[in-house]
Each structure stands twice: as structure tokens, then as C-alpha cells.
TrEMBL record:
Keywords: NAD, Oxidoreductase. Gene3D superfamilies: NAD(P)-binding Rossmann-like Domain (3.40.50.720). It holds the Pfam family 2-Hacid_dh_C. GO terms for cellular component: cytosol. This is Phosphoglycerate dehydrogenase. Belongs to the D-isomer specific 2-hydroxyacid dehydrogenase family. Residues 7-296 form the D-isomer specific 2-hydroxyacid dehydrogenase catalytic domain. Residues 103-275 form the D-isomer specific 2-hydroxyacid dehydrogenase NAD-binding domain. PANTHER family: 2-HYDROXYACID DEHYDROGENASE-RELATED, GLYOXYLATE_HYDROXYPYRUVATE REDUCTASE B. GO terms for molecular function: glyoxylate reductase (NADPH) activity; hydroxypyruvate reductase [NAD(P)H] activity; NAD binding.
Amino acid sequence: MTLDQCQDRLAAEGLDVVVPQIQQQMSESELCNIIADFDGVIAGDDPFTAKVLEIGRKGRLRVLAKWGIGVDAIDLEAAKQLGIYTSNTPNVFGDEVADIALGYIILLARQLHRMDAAIRRGEWLKIQGTSLRGKTAGVVGIGSIGKAIVRRLHTLGMEVLGHDVHPIDPAFCQETHLKSVALDLLLQQSDCIVLACNLTPQNYHLLNDRAFAQMKNGVWVVNVARGALIDETALVTALKDGKVGAAALDVFETEPLPLTSPLLRFEQVILGSHNSSNTREAVLRVNQLAIDHLVRDLNRAASSHES
């Protein structure tokens, strides 16, 4: 969160702000050590487990405002039982994440990153790329981000299959020529598979050995959602045997990605830093929305306590 650009608003609301020094997210033990001191938290992807929330509730914690969309790191049931107000900021990053997904797909198709690196080494690398028009892309998760990805892929002339656990709006399917299909069919027919869904207990390791076995040989995999949607051990095996021809991963099961990860060995894998939503405009927009939710729920909590 760009704190300097929010200071006036935070001061006007009478909030004292503490910002822990972190690289990607705090650990459960780190949260347990400090959580009881705060009335409210604007959270990233930090693990707000039942243990963390219970310790927080025994102290001052009353409000948890999620910065962003995904709430998979928050034990929502525990928060509800403890009377902790929770919120998130849905429908805020569709275009930003879709732009990154599109960028990854174009990089996989034309290998621009490899040519750039070669030229910087004094080489003149010529790579025969892959045309995208007419290829089939499968998008898993047709929420705000998935819809924005579908629109971009349709514009490229790709055939697009979509899968979601909820019914997909028929009007959107008609607008984009999206075909709503079962997951197995999407896996079997797609040349490129893009993950844009929430992480839930039901779809943990959605792409596992069984899923990879169903895919076309040489399929591309793009993940701009959550790292744990992919069984990384299974992905490494699929990369080694050529089942997966290339991958672009903005997220991982462990972040930052450890230097011991075997994914680092594959030239055909593009690695990101969980950064697909990070544009100046989007950050400022979500900052304000998260603060709105924090202030609203702190006031609700205060009113509830007084009554």
C-alpha cells in the first residue's frame, strides 16, 4: 500500500497507522506476536488463520479489511464466529490482471523475452513463433478478471472456452463467442490454459497429475490467480516430459519463489512476482476502497460495542 498517498485520509479519520516490514507477506507466528495490538488491519495475503484471529480478538482486533480480491488466506468462518468484521475489494483488478495474462501469452507465443536477453549478450536470436489466431484458449474462472481475459483473447482471434463453478452469463458468452464447458473438456481441447479463479479447498491443486494427463501435448499454462491451484511437482514432471510446452506463472505455492525451486531450471517457464495487479492507478483505487471498508467496519464495531 502506498502509505504516503493515503496519509491525509488516514489522519482525517483519526487512525494511528503501523506498517510492518515485510517482503511478500507475514507468517502466522509473526501475526500472532502483534495482532492483539490492533483494532483493525488492512490485510494482504497474510495467513489470518483461526489461531491468529483468536489471539487478535482476545486483544483489540475487531476489523479485517482485505486489500484485493482473494480471501483464501482468511479463515472467514472463524472471523464470523469471533465477531470480526471482514471485507474485500472485489471487481477492482480485472483489466490489470487481464493485461498481464495477455502479455504472458504473447511472450509464450513469440518469445520476446528470450530475444531481448540474447541481443543484450551480443547475439541475434531468431525464433519462429506461434500464431495465436485460431488457437484455443481455456480460461478457468469467469469472474471480473476471467471476463476481461476472455475479451482480450477473443479480440486476438482465439477460440475461447470457459469454465466456472457458477453459471456463466449467456449474454457474455454471446458477446465474446465464449463456449461454457466442463473442466475436463477445457483441459482436453485447449492449446493454452489460463487460471483466473479463486483458490478454495475444493480446487486446491486443480492442475495435478490427472489434469495434466488430459491436456494436449505441448499445452501452455498461465497462472495469474493463486499458486496453490497448481501442483508444482506435477507441473515440473509435465514440463520435463513435454506435456506442458511452456508456462507463465505470476504466483507460486511459496512466495517469494525459493532459489531451490526446480521451476527455475526451465527456459520455457516465465516467472513473475505476484505482481499482475500492481499498477499505479489500480493501487490508488484499491487503497481508498480498503480504507473505506476499514473505517466503515470500525464504526460498526464501535456502535455494536456501545449498544
